[in-house]
Amino acid sequence: INSTIRHNEVTSDAGGGIFNDASLLVRGCVIHDNKGSDGGGIDNRSGDINDTIVIENTTITRNRGLRGGGLSHNTMGTTTLTQSTIFQNLSTSDGGGVFANPNGTITLRGTILADNTTTDSSDTPDCGGPGTIQSDGFNLIGDSTNCNFAANADDQVGDASELLNPLLGALADNGGPTQTLLPAVDSLVIDRGGDCAPLDEDQRAVARPQGANCDIGALELAPGQFRLGSAEFTAAEADAAATILVERSDGADTNATVDIEFADDTAEAGSDYIDVSATLSFATGVQMLAVTVPLITDSITEATETVTVTLSNPTGGATVSTPDAATLTISDSSVSTSSGGCSLIRR
After folding, report:
1. Does the predicted TM-score (pTM) go above 0.70?
2. What are the tens digits of pLDDT across the range 94-109?
3. At 119, phi and psi to the nearest 5?
4. Radius of gyration of the chain from Cα atoms?
5. ∠ CA 184-29-26 to the nearest 5 degrees?
6. Residue 291 burial class via C-beta count within 10 angstroms: exposed 0-12, middle 13-18, buried 19 and up
7. How far apart are CA 44 and CA 151, in angstroms?
8. What is the β-pairing status of strands 78-82 and 52-56?
9. Span 226-251, average pLDDT
10. Are 151 and 180 in contact (CB under 8 A)?
11. Distance between CA 294 and CA 274 in Å, rounded?
12. How far apart are CA 178 and CA 254, in angstroms?
């Protein structure tokens, strides 16, 4: 659980990363750059029909094997993958991503199986072998050529004539205890993973779903929500500037923008403050920006004045949450002048 299994090699046996001949739970892990004969990443091999391997919220990538670059199912038992990602693995014989033996059962739910390859003539890039891979729904199969995949209506299944690219980034630290593959904001996996059952978190322990539905695969893209740091900001005219904080909460997985607008209430742009309405750019991982609003000082005694601040038009998959509007209150700091006992007050 929450482990990294990498850079292992067996030269004449199966299971470069994991060899399993009993029952096993793999959850929240990354298994990458391992090498074996059958099952470069994982070989599941048992003669007991009651043995099970359950793989949840796990990334299996860049492994190499003879049969099943990512995973080889050579068992009488059951292999179940839920909300997992099998991506860019290599087989030198059969099943670049997954090899399925006809014995036992292998089932996918909410799983990405894409961009895997084989180097021989079997032409089984993402899945191969004589066995059938069952679907429990909401999967993305990049290339089902010569793959015995029993698809559901809600699966997305490509083939050699129309490959499906999940648009995953490089293996990297995207938060959480292990490295992961981050999907792009326009990926085919976004909001296509159904109701998330039975998992309510992703590989990083980020809550699922972030959108209308779960994302397919081990990672739930979390673009976040923009909001103002407060519903009330204050400054004195003598401060020369006011600071408005714009926050991004609940994730910052994408490059995103949001518009900030300043509008006159009782204060007047050009006389009391400089309008700095703009589009703010948040790079991936950035959770706060400070906007400086220049204030205009004068010698006229004035009543306290206000400016309305609003956020709108988020991009990058992010949304706007409350407070999305605020009041900037500017207090007067001038020295009043008098003539004949009368103060000069501008209203």
Report:
1. yes
2. 999 999 988 888 999 9
3. -105, -5
4. 28
5. 125
6. middle
7. 22
8. parallel
9. 96
10. no
11. 5
12. 19
Amino acid (1-letter code) at residue 304? T
Buried b or exposed e, range 173-197, using 16+ CB within 10 angstroms: ebbbbbbbbbbbbebbbbbbbbebe
